[in-house]
Amino acid sequence: MYSNIKNIKGTIIKLPQYLETKKELYKRDGYCKIDQVFKENFIELIKKDIIKLSKKGSYKDKYGKIRRVEKIYDKTKNLKKLNKILKDIIYKILKKKLEIFKDKCHFKPPGGAGFKAHYDGVFYFFDKNNKKRKGWYEYSNYFVNALVALDFCDKKNGTLELGKAKNKKYEELILDTYQDGSPLLKKKVEKKFKFRSFKLLPGDVLFFSNKCPHRSKKNNSKRQRTILYYTYSNCGIRAYNRYFKDKDESLNKNSKSLT
Ligand SMILES: O=C(O)CCC(=O)C(=O)O
User: Which residues line ligand 1 (CB under 6 A)?
Assistant: First the structure.
């Protein structure tokens, strides 16, 4: 699968050269891409599992097309394995033992809308008691996303575009947004960033900080673009259920989708 990497068992492991480089890149830019973390046959198994899970519950767009499946990371043997591998790599790159905070699979069917530029988790929401809350920063101030390509991704089918992380606190980052309950960046802020578009093969993984501005375009191809989009944090596994419960109860209505 990813033969250069051993499991962590409390021992300090010398990083393979290519991971040392990734570590430096992540430190400098807030993101790094690792090619072929997962082999094609493993990705095929994951896709089969996801299709089965999507039959039990998914979010659809206004055309009735499946766009998102959530709460999947521990639902099958293969998905559990994938999560463990991602956590191991994060540990090796960042020297942090993080747990899954939220997880989803994003489908972008032909013609499917993209996402406007935003930072992840930088928004406010009103909880069920109408109390104003600080987005993901209610749980922690450290988040790492792992995007696993399940399909080939490129500009045409709406791959992710990333800018370098802005290493600021919530209170400063929120000023870059419209502060309308969504994490969307103001147009003038978006224009200041240089976005890099990532061509990904199935099995490639993109690790990036939630503080990296990112966006994606509509799928203008004839084929679906599917990715796993997991977020890891240092706030402990109990935050996972709390997050999804708070999200269900949140009174926010705004979305970061292009439509
Ligand atoms: O699926 C995509 O194209 C981007 C998703 C995204 O930016 C997000 O969920 O924060």
Answer: 106, 108, 114-115, 120, 158, 160, 214, 216, 227, 229
